[in-house]
Design a protein that fits this description.
The protein is α+β, with helices and mostly antiparallel strands. About 30% of the residues lie in helices and about 25% in strands. The chain is built from two helices and two strands, in the order ααββ. The radius of gyration is 22 Å and the shape is elongated.
Length: about 80
């Protein structure tokens, strides 16, 4: 904890809040649901994207790897 304070030069609770916000951003990614293309003239078009901002992602399974061979460890 002291190392975190020395590296960031501030309070550690601010750093952990920042890490928590970054995790939340990864959990709720902006996902494209639909694309609508409007053709205005020959060769000119506008694309409208709709996003799902609330749909959560599912974190992948944790796989432990050997530090030397980088192969998955069997538990």
């Amino acid at each position: 904890m002291a190392n975190v304070q020395l590296l960031w030069g501030g309070r550690s609770d601010v750093v952990f809040d920042d890490l928590k916000d970054q995790l939340r951003k990864r959990m709720f990614r902006k996902r494209t649901v639909q694309r609508i293309t409007f053709i205005i003239a020959h060769g000119i078009s506008i694309e409208l994207n709709s996003y799902a901002l609330i749909r959560p992602t599912i974190p992948g399974a944790i796989t432990w790897l050997d530090s030397v061979t980088n192969l998955p460890l069997k538990v």
